[in-house]
Design goal:
heterodimer; A: 310 residues; mainly alpha; MetI-like fold; 15 helices; B: 462 residues; D-Maltodextrin-Binding Protein, domain 2; 2 domains; five-stranded mixed beta sheet; three-stranded antiparallel beta sheet
Chain lengths: 310, 462
C-alpha cells in the first residue's frame, strides 16, 4: 500500500499548489528535442499511421474494416509463421535473461576486475558485427563442409548443410545467432547496472551471512529487476521483427527454408510478391499489437516507469 | 500492494469492461457491410485493356537488366551498336525462384518510374509481367506481337517454346534458350564397365541399381536440387502444375504417373544410386563430382555442371535422348529454366529495346556462341554447328538435343508462384530426414495447393 499512499499525498500536494513552480523550460529545450521529434514523426509515427490506413482499406482505397486482418489470419502460412516466431522468442528470451544475468553477476562478483574487463570485451565483439555479417559467419559455422566445428556437427549426426537446416532445428539456430550477436552488449549493460548497487548494501548482506549466490538472488537481481525487464522488452521487440536471418538462410540453403518462416517474411511476400500491400500492413499491425501488449504487461508488472522516491 | 478491494483497482476494472464492450460493438459494426479485402488485380481481366506505349523518344537511353551469364551478349550488342545509348545492370535473373524483378516492378508501379527497358527473366516471371500488378497499372511486359516483332520472327522459335510468353492471345516475351531435359552419362565409365546406355526408365532403374552394387559410390542422378522435380516429374508427365483454365490449377500428385516416378526414385535412393544431396549444393563437386556416372537433367548440365562445376575432362560426357516408359511410344521430357527477354511497356524507346531483344534471341551472331541452347530454331542450328558447343562432349549432341527440344511436355504450366518453393522447402527437407518420396507426395500436394489458393487459383485434383 505504500505506493498508493505516496501517490495520493503527491496529488493532494499538487492540488494545493504547495510545490514551488519550476522555471519555464525555454525555447532551447524544444529545439533540442525538435530534431528527433521531426524524424520520429516522419519515419516512425507517419509510417505506422499509414500502415493502419492500409490495413483498414483495400487496394482501391475502400474501407474494409477488419476484413484484411481476418484475411491474413486465415492464410495457411499465418499460424505456422507466428508459431515459429513464438517458439523462437520463448527460447531466446529465456536463454538471454538467464545467461546474461548469470554471466553479469559472475563477472561482477566472482572474477578479478582485469579478467572481467577482458571477458566483457570478448563477449561484446560479436555484437559489433552487423546482422547480415553475423549470419554469414554462422552460415560457415553450420555447414559441415567448411565449418571449423564440423566434428561437433558430425557427432550430432548432421553431415550436410541440408541436414543442419532441418525445419525442427531452425528456432534453435536462429536463437544461437541472436544470442551470439545480442547477448554481449546486454552483459555489458547488466554489469553496469550491477555496478550501481552501493557497496554498503552488499557489505551489509555479507555481514548478515549471505554467501555470493544468496546475495545475487536476494540483493543483486531484485535491484536490477527494471534493467532485466527493459532488456526483455527490447529483445521481444527485435525478436518479433525476425527477418534477415531466416531470409538469408533461405537463400543460402537454396530454398530449403520456407520463404515465409517468420511473420515479417510473410508480410514481405504479401507486399512484394502478391502485390498486396494492404494484407502486408495487416500482418505488421498484428506484430505491433503483439509487441505493445507484451511491453505493456511487462511495464505494468514491473513498475518500470515508476520513479524511485528518494 | 495488490489488494483486490482497493477503489483504484475497481475503477480500472470497470473501465476495462466498458472498453471491451465498446470494442466488441465497434468490431461488429465494422465487420458488417465493409468492402472486400481481396485484391482486385486477379479478378479484373487485362485482356480488354489495349497496350498504350509511353511517349517515344528516338535515341533515348535504354536500361538493360541481365543475369551475369547473359551479360557478355548484351555487351557484345553494345559494342556492335555504339550508336545505341545503353545502361547495363546485372541482377540474379530470376534464378532459383528469386523474385527480385517482381519486387522491383511492384515498387516501380507504385512510384510510377524507374522501370528497366529490356529484361532477362525466367518463364515464371511472365505470369505476373503479363498482368497489371495493381488496378490501373499497365502490365510490365509489352505485347511483342503488337507491331513490335514481326510474326515471321515469332514463328521461327522452337515448337511450344513461346508458350510461357503467351497470355490473352498476345506474346509478351521472346524465349532466349530452352533447357530440354536429356540423359547425361559418362561415356568413358560406361565403356569401361561395359554397360549399355538406357533408353527406357525401366532400364535406367535397373542399371542404376547395378552400378550401385558393382561400383558403390557412383551415382546415376540427384533429386536434391531446387529444380530436380522438373527433371524427373515434368519428364514423367506428372500433373503437378497443370493450368486447365487461366485461373484453375490441376495438381494431382496421386496420379499414377507421379507415383510411378516417385517409386522409381525411392528405389534408386535407397540403393544409394540417386543422391538426395543437390548436384549444386556446397561441397558436392569436391566430394562426389567425379562419381557421377549418369544424370537426368537439362541441356545446360554439360557446360555448367560437368565442365564448370565438376571439372570433368573433355570427351567423357555424352548425351542420350530422353527416356521413355516401356510400352509407351510418345516420349516426353521436362524443361529446367530457359530464360526469356521481355521489353518494358513503359519504355520510351521501344524501337531500340525491341531490336535488342530480337538480336539477342534470334541472331546467329549472338546465339551461335551463346552459353545455352537457343530457342530460335535457326540459331539453334548455328549453335550446334559451332565446335565450341560440341567439342567438349564424347558424342554428337545435335540429335538428342534437337529431338528433346520438340518433346518438352506442355502439361506443366508456369504459375504465378514458383514451382520450386514447395519442392525445396517441403520435399527436400523430408528427403534429407530420410522420408521416402512416395510418403512425401501428400505434403507436397498440400503445399502446392495452399500456395496456389493464396495466389488466387482454384485448385482441382486434390
Amino acid at each position: 500500500m505504500t505506493l498508493l499512499e505516496t501517490e495520493r499525498v503527491a496529488v493532494s500536494a499538487l492540488r494545493r499548489g504547495a510545490l514551488p513552480r519550476r522555471r519555464g523550460p525555454g525555447l532551447a529545450g524544444y529545439l533540442f528535442v525538435a530534431g528527433y521529434a521531426v524524424l520520429l514523426l516522419a519515419f516512425g509515427v507517419f509510417p505506422t499511421g499509414y500502415s493502419f490506413y492500409l490495413a483498414l482499406t483495400n487496394d482501391q482505397g475502400r474501407f474494409t474494416g477488419l476484413n484484411q486482418f481476418v484475411k491474413v489470419a486465415q492464410d495457411y502460412r499465418f499460424v505456422p509463421a507466428f508459431t515459429h516466431m513464438l517458439v523462437y522468442l520463448v527460447m531466446w528470451l529465456v536463454v538471454l535473461v538467464v545467461l546474461v544475468v548469470l554471466v553479469a553477476v559472475v563477472l561482477r562478483s566472482r572474477v578479478r576486475p582485469g579478467t572481467s574487463a577482458l571477458f566483457r570485451f570478448l563477449y561484446y565483439i560479436p555484437g559489433a558485427l552487423a546482422g547480415v555479417a553475423s549470419v554469414l559467419v554462422w552460415l560457415f559455422m553450420l555447414d559441415p563442409d567448411v565449418s571449423p566445428v564440423s566434428w561437433l556437427l558430425n557427432s550430432m549426426g548432421m553431415h550436410s548443410f541440408a541436414a543442419v537446416l532441418a525445419p525442427g532445428n531452425l528456432p534453435l539456430i536462429l536463437m544461437l545467432i541472436a544470442f551470439w550477436t545480442g547477448a554481449g552488449g546486454w552483459m555489458v549493460v547488466m554489469y553496469g547496472a550491477l555496478n550501481n548497487i552501493p557497496d554498503e548494501v552488499l557489505e551489509a548482506a555479507r555481514m548478515d551471512g549471505a554467501g555470493p549466490w544468496r546475495t545475487a538472488w536476494h540483493i543483486q537481481i531484485p535491484m536490477i529487476r527494471q534493467w532485466i525487464v527493459y532488456m526483455t522488452i527490447m529483445a521481444f521487440a527485435t525478436g518479433t521483427q525476425l527477418f534477415v536471418e531466416p531470409q538469408l538462410l533461405q537463400t543460402a540453403s537454396l530454398g530449403r527454408v520456407s520463404p515465409t518462416w517468420s511473420p515479417n517474411q510473410l508480410a514481405y511476400v504479401y507486399a512484394f510478391q502478391q502485390g498486396d500491400f494492404n494484407g502486408s500492413a495487416a500482418i505488421s499491425v498484428f506484430l505491433l499489437a503483439l509487441g505493445l501488449i507484451a511491453a505493456g504487461l511487462l511495464v505494468a508488472r514491473s513498475n518500470l516507469f515508476t520513479l524511485d522516491e528518494k | 500492494m495488490r489488494s483486490s478491494g482497493s477503489p483504484r483497482a475497481d475503477r480500472r476494472r470497470t473501465a476495462i469492461r466498458t472498453a471491451a464492450a465498446a470494442l466488441s460493438l465497434a468490431t461488429a459494426a465494422v465487420l458488417a457491410g465493409c468492402a472486400s479485402a481481396d485484391t482486385s488485380t486477379d479478378s479484373s481481366s487485362s485482356s480488354g485493356t489495349e497496350f498504350k506505349p509511353a511517349a517515344q523518344k528516338d535515341g533515348s537511353k535504354i536500361t538493360v537488366w541481365a543475369d551475369s551469364t547473359r551479360l557478355p551478349s548484351v555487351q557484345a550488342y553494345q559494342k556492335s551498336h555504339p550508336d545505341v545509348p545503353m545502361e547495363i545492370v546485372t541482377y540474379d535473373g530470376g534464378a532459383d525462384g528469386s523474385t527480385y524483378l517482381q519486387t522491383k516492378v511492384q515498387l516501380f508501379d507504385r512510384t510510377g518510374s524507374g522501370w528497366p527497358d529490356v529484361v532477362f527473366g525466367s518463364p515464371t516471371d511472365m505470369t505476373w509481367a503479363s498482368e497489371p500488378t495493381k488496378p490501373g497499372a499497365q502490365p510490365f511486359a509489352a505485347p511483342l506481337d503488337d507491331k513490335l516483332v514481326p510474326k515471321s520472327t515469332l514463328d521461327g522459335f522452337a515448337k511450344g517454346s513461346l508458350a510461357p510468353c503467351q497470355f490473352n492471345g498476345h506474346t509478351y516475351c521472346v524465349r532466349n534458350d530452352i533447357a530440354q531435359v536429356v540423359l547425361w552419362y559418362n561415356k568413358s565409365l560406361m565403356d569401361k564397365w561395359g554397360y549399355e546406355v538406357p533408353a527406357t526408365w525401366e532400364q535406367y532403374e535397373a542399371l542404376g541399381k547395378r552400378i550401385a552394387k558393382e561400383h558403390p559410390g557412383y551415382l546415376v542422378g540427384s533429386v536434391g536440387d531446387t529444380n530436380s522435380h522438373e527433371s524427373y516429374f515434368w519428364s514423367g508427365q506428372c500433373p503437378a502444375f497443370e493450368l486447365v483454365k487461366p485461373d484453375t490449377l490441376r495438381s494431382d500428385l496421386k496420379d499414377e504417373k507421379c507415383v510411378r516416378m516417385a517409386t522409381l526414385l525411392d528405389g534408386l535412393i535407397s540403393a544409394k544410386a540417386v543422391t538426395t544431396k543437390g548436384f549444386f549444393s556446397q561441397g558436392f563437386a569436391k566430394d562426389s563430382g567425379g562419381k557421377v556416372a549418369m544424370a537426368y537433367g537439362p541441356s545446360w548440365y554439360g557446360q555448367y555442371l560437368f565442365k564448370s562445376a565438376f571439372k570433368t575432362p573433355a570427351k567423357q560426357i555424352a548425351v542420350a535422348p530422353p527416356l521413355t516408359w516401356e510400352g509407351e511410344t510418345t516420349a516426353a521430357t521436362g524443361n529446367v529454366g530457359g530464360g526469356v527477354w521481355m521489353v518494358s511497356s513503359h519504355s520510351a524507346n521501344l524501337k531500340a529495346s525491341t531490336d535488342l531483344a530480337t538480336w539477342l534471341t534470334t541472331s546467329d551472331e549472338n546465339q551461335a556462341s551463346a552459353p545455352t541452347y537457343p530457342a530460335y530454331t535457326k540459331a539453334a542450328r548455328a549453335w550446334l554447328a559451332n565446335p565450341v558447343n560440341s567439342d567438349y562432349f564424347a558424342n554428337d549432341v545435335s540429335e538428342p538435343f534437337q529431338k528433346a527440344a520438340d518433346q518438352v511436355w506442355t502439361g506443366w504450366s508456369n504459375t504465378r508462384f514458383s514451382d520450386a518453393t514447395a519442392w525445396s522447402s517441403v520435399v527436400l527437407p523430408a528427403l534429407t530426414s530420410g522420408k521416402s518420396l512416395v510418403a512425401t507426395l501428400p505434403a507436397w500436394q498440400e503445399e502446392i495447393s495452399n500456395q496456389a489458393k493464396a495466389e488466387g487459383y482454384q485448385v482441382t485434383g486434390e
